[in-house]
Design a protein that fits this description.
heterodimer, A: 262 residues, alpha/beta, Rossmann fold, six-stranded mixed sheet, 9 helices, 10 strands, 33% helix, B: mainly alpha, two-stranded antiparallel ribbon, two-stranded antiparallel sheet, 4 strands, disordered N terminus
Chain lengths: 262, 340
């Protein structure tokens, strides 16, 4: 499932540090992500997982540490540069401009233009209809400002924006927190589909069900540190909860696979 | 202008009565009602001559209002335009006095205005000072520099060429009568009005058809979202403030040219008229909302009101009161609609 050691990881974050005044939000954290792998990033609120994700997506700059993408050092200074490297993020807040309509949001920051350099709104609208309807066949009101759309529709725009443009590394920050059951199932299908095409996904989630259904591996953060990276077969929900809450595995823990042998 | 905006899909200007078009429609109706009311009050109001006078008088506020609209859409405000207008005029005047030909001297004045706007943009984005405070500072600085450079005295005798921009007109038809005063058949369209129309069309095109315009809306709508989407938010804001400064410089040159004198204390409180024009036209000080055609309607509401009230013999003090009330009513109507 996880082909380690064969090629350079898609993303390799090493020794990442971020402090705000005296507080270490991220404390020497390292994290690898391989192509076609879904890694769950777990932890309490304030454990540093969002901060770590923001560093990778360029929304925040680390004080220390290096990020390698496909083995090459990537100096990510802003979201624009991250996107150029194929790093896309679905933010929990969705990061939509409320006054603009769906196509304008979908293409925000990389608008399609005509030969004269004008905005090609007709083409953007056409593309938007096809990509949004692929995710949600009932998507309507593409002309309306997105503030008037439902939570599910807004989520669809945020997702579409992340996967439309040649994504290689996808960060999903609580992608299902605001969704109903059918939309959650849609997101789960999407994650599986993207994984099969070789995209690496970092899934920040509180939902243990999602994590165990979708992830190949979990990375748990506690008080700014990476307290464990485990293949999903090796741990139980209780093990993961223990890591999240106490920052360590239960004292009697052995990898699940080996339990049988004993 | 209207055409440009109708083509732009992402703005709420469809044929359904969206908030934006409702506001614009009510502003337009207000303007028409004002014109009708004043026409009944005074026969001289609805004449070609007076119409052209209104055009001329509105052009300065209109130019300032266009720049202001760009800044307001980004979620900012530019309080410095009145002072920058004066400083630009002073720079042009001093350049003319120093022997620079009129056209390049005026260009220099506009560049000075743009430079003030650029500083505003830097202070707002790089020093992270709120737009209100940053441009308040620039308002004092630009006025101070204008007064210091001139010793607070007007600069006059700037040559005939200096007056052309403000006083010239296109398609002026004059009939020779043989007497001292030739008969004016058609006074011509004043250059300032043509300039205003050209700038308004260019600004509407920029806002609705170009990427920078889209980014201006996005920045004002949700700055964080725009940044995370890869919009270079700082650059976008600096662009808006610089353009506002440049347009203030242009307005300053138009105004001083009309007076054929540079007045360093000209343009006091003009920023408030410009803000009023934008707000009456539907721009929201919260950012993300506003458009050029609305601001033009707003500018003309103010212009027609001033002109009409003047003709009716209403004092300038009462005029201020009336415009103040209109600003509040315009925003109130908008709020009621948005609350639903």
């Amino acid at each position: 499932m996880v082909q380690q050691g064969e090629s350079a990881p898609l993303v390799q974050m090493t020794g990442i540090e971020k402090h705000f005044g005296g507080i270490r939000a991220v404390d020497r954290v390292s994290l690898d992500l391989h192509a076609g792998e879904v890694v769950g990033v777990l932890g309490h609120n304030g454990a540093g997982k969002s901060c770590l994700m923001r560093i990778l997506s360029g929304a925040m700059i680390a004080n220390e540490g290096t990020i390698r993408v496909n083995g090459e050092i990537a100096d990510i200074q802003n979201p624009h540069q991250a996107r150029d490297l194929g790093i896309e993020t679905i933010y929990q807040t969705l990061a939509l401009a409320d006054h603009l309509n769906a196509p304008a949001n979908l293409f925000l920051g990389r608008e399609l233009k005509t030969k004269l350099g004008n905005l090609d709104d007709r083409k953007m609208m056409g593309e938007a209809i096809s990509v949004l309807r692929k995710l949600n066949p009932n998507f309507k009101n593409l002309d309306d400002p997105v503030s008037r759309l439902s939570g599910g529709q807004r989520q669809v725009i945020a997702i579409a924006r992340a996967i439309y443009f040649n994504v290689k590394i996808l960060i999903m920050d609580e992608p299902t927190a605001a969704l109903g059951p059918s939309e959650t199932a849609m997101v789960a299908d999407l994650v599986k589909k993207l994984r099969s095409t070789g995209i690496g996904i970092l899934l920040v989630s509180h939902d243990m069900h999602d994590v165990f259904e979708l992830c190949d591996r979990v990375v748990v953060m506690n008080k700014g540190r990476n307290v464990g990276s485990h293949g999903i077969e090796d741990v139980t929900k209780d093990d993961v909860l223990s890591l999240i809450i106490k920052g360590e595995l239960p004292g009697d823990w052995v990898p699940r696979g080996r339990e049988m042998v004993q | 202008m209207a055409n440009l905006e109708r083509e732009a899909l992402p703005l709420p200007t469809g044929f359904r009565l969206s908030t934006g078009s409702f506001h614009k429609l009510s502003a337009l109706l207000t303007l028409v009602a004002l014109v009708i009311a004043f026409s009944f009050g005074n026969d001289a109001f609805l004449t070609v001559n007076n119409g052209l006078t209104v055009l001329l008088q509105t052009s300065v506020i209109g130019l300032l209002g266009i720049g202001m609209t760009l800044v307001i859409i980004t979620g900012g405000i530019d309080l410095s335009v009145g002072s920058v207008l004066a400083l630009s005029g002073v720079v042009t005047g001093l350049a003319v006095k120093a022997g620079v030909p009129t056209a390049p001297a005026m260009a220099l004045g506009i560049v000075a205005g743009a430079a003030c706007g650029l500083v505003n943009g830097f202070v707002v984005t790089k020093m992270r000072i709120t737009p209100f405070v940053a441009t308040l500072g620039m308002m004092l600085i630009a006025r101070g520099v204008a007064l210091q450079l001139t010793g607070a005295a007007p600069i006059s005798r700037l040559g005939e060429a200096f007056g052309i921009l403000g006083n010239g007109s296109l398609f002026r038809i004059v009939e020779k009568t043989g007497g001292i005063f030739p008969k004016v058949v058609f006074p011509g369209i004043p250059y300032p009005a043509i300039l205003l129309a050209a700038v308004a069309i260019a600004a509407a095109y920029l806002l609705n058809r170009r990427q920078i315009g889209r980014h201006i809306y996005a920045t004002g709508s949700n700055e964080e979202a725009a940044r995370l989407s890869g919009v270079l938010v700082d650059r976008t804001k600096i662009f808006a403030y610089t353009l506002s400064g440049a347009l203030a410089g242009l307005a300053g040159n138009v105004l001083m040219s009309r007076l054929v004198t540079v007045q360093p204390n000209e343009g006091v409180m003009y920023e408030l008229d410009a803000i009023a024009a934008a707000v009456i036209g539907g721009a929201s000080l919260m950012g993300g909302v506003g458009n050029i055609s609305g601001t033009m309607i707003g500018a003309f509401i103010i212009g027609v009101l001033r002109n009409g009230l003047n003709m009716a013999g209403v004092s300038a003090f009462i005029q201020q009161i009336v415009i103040g009330v209109i600003v509040i009513v315009a925003v109130y109507i908008d709020q009621i609609r948005n609350r639903r």
